[in-house]
Amino acid sequence: MTEKQPVYILPENVQRILGRDAQRNNILAARIVAETVKTTLGPKGMDKMLVDSIGDITVTNDGVTILEEMEIEHPAAKMMVEIAKTQEAEIGDGTTTAVILAGKLLENAEKLLDEKIHPTVITRGYRIAAEKAQQIAKELAVSVSPEKELLLKQIVMTAMTGKGAEAAKEKLSEVVVKAVKQIIERSEEGLIIDKNNIKLEKRKGEGIEDTELIPGIVLDKERVSQDMPSQVRNARIALLDMALEVKGPETEAKIQITAPEQLQAFIDQEDKILRGMVEKIKKVGANVVLCQKGIDDVAQYYLAKAGIFACRRIKKSDIDLIAKATGAKIVSNLNELSSEDLGKARLVKEIKEGEEEGLTLITGCENPKALTILIRGGTEHVIDELERAIKDGVGDVVVALEKGFVVAGGGAFEVELSKRLNEFAQSIKGREQLAVKAFAESLEVIPRTLSENAGLDPIDILTELKARHDKKETMAGLDLTTNSKELAICNTLDKGIIEPLEIKNQAIKSASEVAMMILRIDDVIAASGNKGSSKMPEMPQEEY
Questions:
Q1: Residues 86, 95, 363, 492: which is the catalytic one?
Q2: Residue 476, H or E segment
């Protein structure tokens, strides 16, 4: 009898993890990512200090920032980072909630896998639960409109609580709400709010409470020459997407000069070109030039002589915002510049504080739909974290107004949703009922984590919350700004702990989708470009 030869399908440098091992490996990796950000949730959440390879430090409790800064290798863990990025891109807040929820969904799914329930059954149950959760969420929501200013401020304060901005959250919420209300545009479809119209500019010095709203654009640039006027009233602004420099040859070139006059003629011609550029700007009536590229020293001299205020190397996003605010058109060819292309502003001025580089302020614009929040703080790390908090606040107000609904925060929404999903599970036949129940239980991770991070007993708190919700107190949640355990549970909607409905909806969608995707993987094939040096995603360790 001839011996059978083994059949090799995959090359030598490919490794494979199959079946239950693959699922266990992926679930553990995803859970570890969730555990990493878990302690940052809520008003009493802790911060993480992240130090990159060149020694730059980031101190934050913003979920997506932590996950982006960490160098994550495991493929399943990378999928968890993706849901945080999606949440950030879609809403701007709720990233930690989405990741923690996904981690808990996978943890509960693993218990069902141990009971020999097929992954397909679990994912089907999770899909049913996620769809039902969206329906229940609408029933729990309260409407919001731009006129409800106090409600909008409470949304911002909830978003900022626990993010290093608490000391001045009243003032900051006022700034954010005022900024968002100013950029609202109404259409037949409803409210249109482009949060890119709010520019965030950071400035070291003074305190957090000195953060202010400026009805115009602030550039982190100063005028290119001290001989230029420091301020220009009734500004006529030219926006240039080109350099005010003499263009050199594209390839290497040699110029042979046989007499000194030729060299002088060469220099004179360059001077003449630059003077011609400035003359053109002057002729169309511009008294402010904002250039996306460089400005030659000779051009600077002629601009200063003509009394024109100029800044160079301005970011493309800033140029677009100035165009929107002032009504200017961005010009790429100076010969095409006309007086119709100029933007208008009441005042353009340079402001300088101490040793810091100057800022350029453009106010009194034709279209006040573009404005700047000037963020102040004592250190760079404080300002960076404050910027993240303000971004979250802006994102929350924008999405609340666009969608028109908010829900009670502090875990109230999750406990009520969990209760109603458990009731719904009774109507489902088959093993999917167990998956719906696991989904409902997973939602309880939010109030549990909030109480853990505040140093309270999560079992006592959760028991009390469930009892309150059984008594039809649908808005009962946690107010962790109080130090009393007895007062911690209250009607969070009345207490002003409010979150946009869309944050919760998006977090549930993202978390359930990634959990279902990871559960359906039963085979991990890892290939490497270098033969023999394949790196299989190793079984992650529960230490970090």
A1: 95
A2: strand 476-478
Q: How far apart are the first and last CA of the chain?
A: 55
Would you call 96 a catalytic residue per the annotation? Answer: yes
The label of the residue with tokens 């769809």 reads 131
Per-residue b or e along 30-40, where b marks 16 or more CB atoms closer than 10 Å to that residue's CB? bbbbbebbbbb
- Of the residues 318, 392, 396, 479, only one is catalytic, namely 392
Could you give the CA distance from residue 394 to residue 66 in angstroms, rounded to a whole number?
20
Instruction: Write the DSSP symbol of residue 5.
Output: P
- Tokens standing for residue 6: 């083994």
**Complete domains list, the chain, with CATH:** 20-142+407-524 (1.10.560.10), 145-215+368-403 (3.30.260.10), 216-367 (3.50.7.10)
65 catalytic? Reply is no
Q: Out of 47, 62, 318, 396, which one is annotated catalytic?
A: 62
Q: Distance (Å, rounded) from C-alpha 362 to C-alpha 370?
A: 11
DSSP H/E element including 361:
strand 359-365
The SS3 call for residue 28 is: helix
412-425 and 119-140 helices, crossing angle to 10° = 120
The answer to whether 512 and 504 have CB atoms below 8 angstroms apart is no
pTM for this prediction? 0.77
The pLDDT tens digits of the residues spanning 219-265 come to 888 888 888 888 889 888 999 888 887 766 656 666 677 767 666 67
Q: Which residues 6+ apart lie within 8 Å of 398 measured at CB?
A: 92, 180, 193, 195
DSSP 66-86: HHHHS----HHHHHHHHHHHH
To the query of whether residue 62 is one of the catalytic residues in this protein, the response is yes
What is the 8-class DSSP label of residue 219? E
Please indicate whether residue 95 is annotated as part of the active site: yes
